[in-house]
Amino acid sequence: MLERIITALILVAVVLSCMFATTSQYPMLVLMIIAAGVAGYEWCKLMPRHSDSINKIKAIGFGLITALFSGMALHFSDLALLLWSASILTWLFSIYWVRSYPEYDGWYNVTLNMIGLVLISASVTAIFEVWNSSPWWLMYLFLLVWGADSGAYFVGRKFGKHKLAPDVSPNKSIEGLIGGVITVAVIIVIVQCVYLHLTLAQHILFLILSIVTVFSSVLGDLFESMVKRRAGMKDSGRILPGHGGVLDRIDSLLAAAPIFAAGMYVLKLIGVDL
After folding, report:
1. Which residues pair with 240 in a beta bridge?
2. Closest Cα partner for 91 from 251, 206, 245, 264?
3. What pLDDT is attached to residue 265?
4. What percentage of the chain carries pLDDT values higher than 90?
5. CB neighbours (10 Å) of residue 118?
6. What is the per-residue pLDDT for 241?
7. pLDDT higher for 93 or 235?
8. H or E element that contains 165
9. What is the distance between the alpha carbons of residues 3 and 132, in angstroms, rounded to a whole number?
10. Averaged over 211-215, what is the pLDDT?
11. Which of 40, 53, 225, 243 has the fewest CB within 10 Å, making it most exposed?
12. Residue of 147, 128, 100 lying closest to 27 (CA atoms)
């Protein structure tokens, strides 16, 4: 437990420093590229393997490709928009994959490498774009994801009886999901009432975006759990003592970040000033 707490404190300090300590884009940019590379490495190790030695070399190469591709997407905003669109489409398909597992696992093939490249790159570019809009909006995104996860954990432990997706993640319950949504609802109401000055219609649109983001974070968590279960692995990696791998920490953000960033982009296009 002590190891887990120390790792969490270091992670929080690094991320918050990149978010708030300077107005320069470079610390956050470097953090996103490193995260993309490590996540790509871990993702590749979850793919169908031929041998451990070949798989490790392939994973290192894939991690480098993911980092380079993410860096390019961070530079070209049009590419980022395409990645967000492709990511959202993939997450829509993943609803069927999660619901049908383990009866259907046709998604577990070589194309999953390309899917991982898209999902990881879309997520880091979305996180960077939200931060670029305002570090506080990125903090709000983190609060949505962490609030949903924490609320689901504590409520699920106390009241969880009905499994949400027993073949994918046996510990998650419908009661926990409800608890997570209620927790996040408090955060959304506070932010909307205290910090946002919008019309009623704009408040409703922002509320819808926030709730969709929360549900997508749950889907991201379930999808990564399903991939790990299919690959026969408990954690995506061991780089974070007490927490597993980078993918284990950002699985919810893989889905939530592109959806939130795309939603903010659309709201801005229709004149909602956040």
Report:
1. 244
2. 251
3. 95
4. 72
5. 22
6. 77
7. 93
8. strand 163-165
9. 32
10. 96
11. 53
12. 128
CA dihedral 57, 60, 61, 67 (to 10 degrees): 180
Query: 274 lies in a domain?
Result: no
| Within a domain: 250 | yes
Fill in the amino acid letter for 264.
M
- What is 70-133 written as a DSSP string? HHHHHH-HHHHHHHHHHHHHHHHHHHHHHHHTTT--TT-STHHHHHHHHHHHHHHHHHHHHHHH
Supply the range of the domain harboring residue 146: 2-269
Q: Categorize the per-residue pLDDT at 1 as very low, low, confident or very high, splitting at 50, 70 and 90.
A: low
Peptide bond into 170 cis (omega under 30): no
- Does 51 score more than 60 pLDDT? no
Rounded alpha-carbon distances, angstroms, from residue 205 to 35, 208, 253: 31, 5, 21
* 105 located within any domain: yes
Q: Which two tokens stand for residue 135?
A: 């570090």
Query: For the chain, what is the domain count?
Result: 1
What value does the mean pLDDT of the chain take? 91
- Give the H or E element holding residue 173: strand 169-173
SS3 39: helix
